[in-house]
């Protein structure tokens, strides 16, 4: 396998830049640059020299033995001063060492998976951790990266392998008297796994929302203060405000962090009947986006009702309380009720987030749903006894294969390129 290298920190000026090297020639490269190889996993100060013997930089150098690095290979890290000239010179020197080449996007992580340091779910968790913008995203990504999904999948796999083995024993000894009826234990094992899978499947939608972000739409008639409220919540002039109706023609999006959750606020066009073709398109988009939103905030004038029927957890508020003196409403102009609105949105979404599972992607849900489908068939076949034991066992094995794809044991080549393409070159 080639020895690869890359800048693992963000390009540009910084206090420290880290260049990572991994592969069989990693320590040879370290010796070529530093004159020796520091003791493994001990931070050591070294002078890095170019191939002409000139002093390139003074750096902290870390080396790792095979089996003790991120990739599982012989590795080295050079923590140099974060000058673009220094990092460029170091990368150039590494490129001139025989047997070394620049890493491809995600190649360090891919090697970690191929060497058994991470399973596929953990790789996805690492990608999510790098992209995390809020506390909820960080916590969720850490659960996946720590291997929680893999541990669950291994538990399900063990139970199903036990169930299949019991059935196969009845097939192998079909001509002999088998003193124990295995059907009750097989049924219990299969039913337990099915129940746990269904619970996990139910939480994927919310987990996916934590990963990608919730959407909250601000909905109402023209001139009820939607854009003004969006600007107050965003803390900037994200939307144009005007006393003229129909100013907002398209959906305006603002990304926020509410109670650690990623939330995109949507300012939509005012809902009304209009002959203006462009405004009409904006209104249609407002209806479509608000229908898909996780939560809607309806702003209404006193005595009016929302133009769209609110869902159970949607929030309906009387607006412009600075003018109509309505108690319990909201005024974006004075700030009255804005804090309470933020608290209601945060509380509603936080309550939903509590039911999220460990599985975070639709790929995970698909694998688990395939597993449940096979196990449901197995449960239907079990009452037929020995006559269908081989079919039942095959359905259970099908479920095992579906769950194996969760952590990358099988059937993953079609998703690997997409996953690793999202990584930076140094990861």
Task: Describe this entry's structure for a reader.
- By secondary structure, the chain is an alpha/beta fold.
- About 2% of the residues have low confidence.
- It is flat, with a radius of gyration of 29 Å.
- The longest helix has 25 residues.
- Helix 6 runs antiparallel to helix 7, helix 6 packs antiparallel against helix 14 and helix 7 packs antiparallel against helix 13.
- It has 3 domains: 112 residues, Gyrase A, domain 2 (2-Layer Sandwich); 141 residues, Four Helix Bundle (Hemerythrin (Met), subunit A) (Up-down Bundle); 139 residues, Rossmann fold, CATH 3.40.50.300.
- Helix content is 47%, strand content 17%.
- The protein contains 15 helices and 11 strands.
Give a summary of the structure in a few sentences.
This protein is of the alpha/beta class and 427 residues long. The chain has helices at residues 26-34, 84-95, 107-114, 120-131, 135-145, 148-172, 183-202, 204-212, 226-234, 277-292, 321-324, 338-353, 362-381, 389-407, 413-421; strands spanning 3-7, 14-22, 44-49, 55-64, 75-82, 100-102, 214-220, 252-258, 261-267, 295-300, 315-318.
């Amino acid at each position: 396998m080639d020895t690869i290298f890359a800048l693992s920190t963000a390009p540009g000026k910084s206090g420290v830049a880290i260049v990572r090297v991994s592969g069989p020639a990693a320590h040879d490269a370290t010796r070529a640059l530093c004159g020796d190889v520091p003791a493994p996993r001990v931070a050591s100060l070294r002078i890095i020299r170019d191939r002409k013997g000139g002093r390139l930089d003074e750096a902290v150098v870390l080396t790792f033995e095979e089996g003790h690095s991120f990739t599982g290979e012989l590795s080295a890290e050079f923590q140099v001063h974060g000058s673009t000239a220094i990092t460029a010179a170091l990368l150039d020197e590494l490129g001139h060492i025989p047997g070394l080449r620049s890493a491809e996007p995600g190649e360090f992580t891919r090697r970690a998976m191929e060497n058994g340091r991470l399973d596929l779910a953990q790789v996805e968790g690492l990608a999510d951790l790098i992209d995390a913008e809020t506390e909820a995203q960080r916590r969720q990504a850490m659960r996946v990266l720590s291997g929680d999904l893999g541990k669950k999948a291994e538990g399900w796999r063990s139970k199903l392998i036990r169930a299949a083995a019991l059935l196969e024993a009845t097939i192998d000894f079909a001509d002999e008297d088998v003193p124990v009826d295995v059907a009750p234990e097989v049924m219990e094992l299969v039913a337990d796994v099915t129940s746990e899978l269904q619970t996990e499947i139910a939480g994927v939608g919310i987990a996916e929302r934590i990963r990608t972000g919730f959407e909250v739409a601000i909905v109402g008639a023209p001139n009820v203060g939607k854009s003004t409220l969006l600007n107050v919540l965003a803390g900037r002039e994200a939307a144009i405000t005007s006393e003229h109706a129909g100013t907002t023609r398209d959906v305006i999006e603002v990304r926020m962090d509410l109670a650690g959750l990623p939330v995109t606020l949507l300012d939509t066009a005012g809902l009304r009947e209009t002959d203006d073709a462009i405004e009409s398109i904006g209104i249609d988009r407002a209806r479509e986006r608000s229908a898909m939103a996780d939560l809607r905030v309806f702003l209404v004038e006193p005595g009016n009702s929302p133009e769209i029927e609110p869902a159970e957890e949607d929030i309906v508020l009387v607006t412009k309380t600075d003018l109509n003196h309505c108690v319990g409403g909201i005024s974006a102009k004075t700030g009255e009720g804005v804090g309470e609105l933020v608290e209601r949105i945060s509380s509603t979404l936080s309550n939903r987030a509590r039911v999220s599972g460990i599985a975070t992607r639709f790929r995970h849900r698909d694998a688990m749903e395939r597993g449940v489908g096979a196990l449901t068939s197995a449960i239907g076949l079990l009452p037929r006894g020995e006559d269908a034991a081989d079919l039942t066992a095959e359905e259970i094995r099908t479920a095992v294969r579906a769950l194996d794809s969760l952590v990358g044991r099988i059937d993953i080549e079609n998703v690997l390129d997409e996953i690793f393409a999202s990584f930076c070159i140094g990861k």
